[in-house]
Design goal:
With 50 residues, the chain is mainly α. The N and C termini lie far apart (39 Å).
Length: 50
């Protein structure tokens, strides 16, 4: 939650409205989830190759 609070404060300081801030947070979360899922798939592929 710290990340979200600091992100909102930072975006407000840049003059963004609520809709723009939500968009930034959604994109941030999507990047995090993608990295986690991608790492999981790569780990499984590596285990299957061994």
């Amino acid at each position: 939650m710290k990340i979200l609070v600091s992100t909102v404060k930072k975006r407000r300081a840049h003059g963004m409205n609520d809709k723009e801030i939500r968009r930034c947070i959604k994109r941030y979360l999507a990047r995090r989830v993608f990295r986690i899922l991608n790492a999981s798939v790569k780990r499984k592929e590596f285990q299957n190759a061994a």
